[in-house]
Write a structure and sequence with these properties.
This protein is an alpha/beta fold. The chain contains 20 helices and ten strands. The strands form three sheets. A five-stranded parallel sheet has the order 7-8-9-6-10, sandwiched between helices. A three-stranded mixed sheet has the order 1-2-3. It has a two-stranded antiparallel ribbon with strand order 4-5. Strand 4 and strand 5 form a beta hairpin. Helix 5 (113-124) runs parallel beside helix 6 and helix 11 crosses helix 12. The radius of gyration is 23 Å and the shape is globular. The structure holds adenosine-5'-diphosphate and magnesium ion. The site of magnesium ion has 3 residues, from helix 6. Magnesium ion is lined by residues 143-144, 201.
């Protein structure tokens, strides 16, 4: 099984970018392969969702090619690593921070040049330029890319620098298990004492987290800051627009520099497409690039995924990328984009059907009459939009991802027995899809 799997994976490797391969394909392990079903072991539910949306198709096709028969995949989620301190056996070891997201492959334009310049400045002189640096902007606009580039560049300039990259979600996970396992001392060593450069991705998810969590975070910030250790945050919004964050944290976010990234203008979109095409080795005619850049204006990740689609299509059909081919191949994708259901629409529809206010749905109230519609809303949001569990939680009174998951599970279980609920949910779905 392992051999066949590896063979399939090497096919996949040719079809995705190196950074995608490293982040999304390589970490996946097969744990079982029987009756045409391959069970893949994945890190967590978030990883699984992204994988299903972006890579499952490529992987299944490759597996089928190797196995020469239809293949299905299902998933097993790894027990979360309870605690991971790099200061383990043999003394503190810190992995070198390397990344395929670099400054070189980041295209600079008017929409992002300020964030880019600030990022360069802090990576050249960590702790001395702006501290903290707070980068904010919409989804898919290059925040994580810049964060990685800062870490990698700073590490290159100073190999001894201990760089810690963490998403806020992973941080919370670490924090809660440290509490549970009474290992707060190790937790603090990891984030305060053996860290010179802290990169915190998606800090907006600190919203609504309890006092003790924000308190711990506050102290980590202070310890690092007063030792002139550089801290960089990314967020999908301006600090003051993040709800339910303690004032003292907010004010610290403003101590350094706040830089935003906006949606790229058409010239920048074209330049990004060209660069990505070059990296992937796709021959991308100008008219095709212009076609994509005109359709997709607010998200670089989507620009990339259009390109990947065309690349895959060109490879599997063994044809060149042309305007005609691109229009055909992306038609369904663009149509689906246009019809995309928003989380707000889900809230409205659920509120209408269950006769509860949207404000109640997103409140912290635990009343049963509200909890059920809220779980339904979460379930539908997960099903019909691209939001992750933490993103859903943030929209429903700052709940964390585990309570979102448990709410959704409740609905999934009830759906099997409760016919009335099934009917309601189907009605809402239909209504949303009709718009
Ligand atoms: P965010 O963290 O803001 O949601 P990411 O950093 O994950 O966005 O970027 C999404 C994708 O778009 C990544 O593959 C990234 O390399 C690419 N990207 C975004 N902005 C640029 C840019 N200016 N130049 C090159 N690639 C970019
Ligand atoms: Mg990101």
């Amino acid at each position: 099984m392992e051999g066949q799997f590896q063979e399939a994976i090497s096919l996949v490797k040719k079809q995705v970018r190196a950074v995608e391969f490293r982040n999304w394909i390589k970490p996946v392990r097969p744990v079982r392969w029987d009756n045409g079903t391959v069970t893949l072991l994945v890190k967590d539910g978030e990883f699984q969702k992204w994988f299903v949306e972006h890579y499952e198709g490529v992987v299944v096709r490759a597996l089928e090619q190797v196995a020469r028969k239809p293949v299905q995949v299902d998933y097993k989620v790894k027990q979360p690593e309870l605690f991971d301190v790099s200061a383990g056996k043999g003394g503190p070891r810190h992995p070198t921070f390397i990344s395929d997201y670099t400054f070189d492959n980041f295209v600079v334009g008017p929409s992002n040049h300020m964030a880019y310049a600030a990022a360069r400045a802090v990576s050249n002189r960590p702790g001395r330029a702006y501290n903290p640096l707070f980068i904010y902007g919409g989804s898919g606009l290059g925040k994580t890319h810049l964060l990685y580039a800062i870490g990698a560049t700073a590490q290159q300039l100073n190999p001894k620098l201990r760089v810690v990259y963490i998403t806020l979600d992973a941080f919370l996970h670490d924090f809660y298990s440290a509490i549970r396992m009474k290992r707060m001392d190790q937790f603090r060593v990891k984030y305060r004492d053996s860290c010179d450069l802290l990169l915190v991705d998606d800090i907006q998810f600190l919203s609504g987290k309890g006092e003790s969590t924000q308190f711990e975070f506050f102290h980590i910030f202070n310890a690092l800051h007063s030792a002139h250790k550089q801290i960089i945050f990314t967020s999908d919004r301006f600090p003051r627009d993040i709800p339910d964050i303690e004032e003292r944290l907010l004010s610290r976010f403003e101590w350094g520099l706040i830089a935003d990234i906006k949606a790229p203008q058409v010239e920048t979109r074209l330049a990004i497409l060209k660069k990505k095409a070059e990296e992937t080795g796709v021959e991308l005619p100008d008219d095709v690039a212009q076609f994509i850049a005109a359709e997709v204006s607010d998200n670089v990740r989507e620009l990339e995924s259009c390109l990947n689609r065309l690349h895959l299509e060109a490879q599997t059909r063994n044809v060149a990328v042309t305007l005609k081919m691109a229009k055909e191949s992306l038609k369904a994708y663009f149509r689906q984009r246009a019809r995309r259901i928003t989380p707000e629409a889900v809230q409205k529809a659920v509120s209408h059907r269950y006769h509860v206010g949207v404000d109640e749905l997103i409140s912290k109230s635990r009343k049963k009459t509200i909890a059920t519609p809220r779980h339904v809303a979460m379930y539908l949001t997960r099903k019909l939009t691209h939001l992750s569990y933490p993103e859903i939680g943030a929209r429903y009174g700052g709940r964390d991802h585990s309570s979102v998951i448990s709410g959704i599970r409740k609905i999934e279980r009830n759906l099997k027995a409760d016919h009335q609920m099934l009917q309601s949910i189907q009605d809402i779905e239909q209504k949303l899809k009709r718009v």
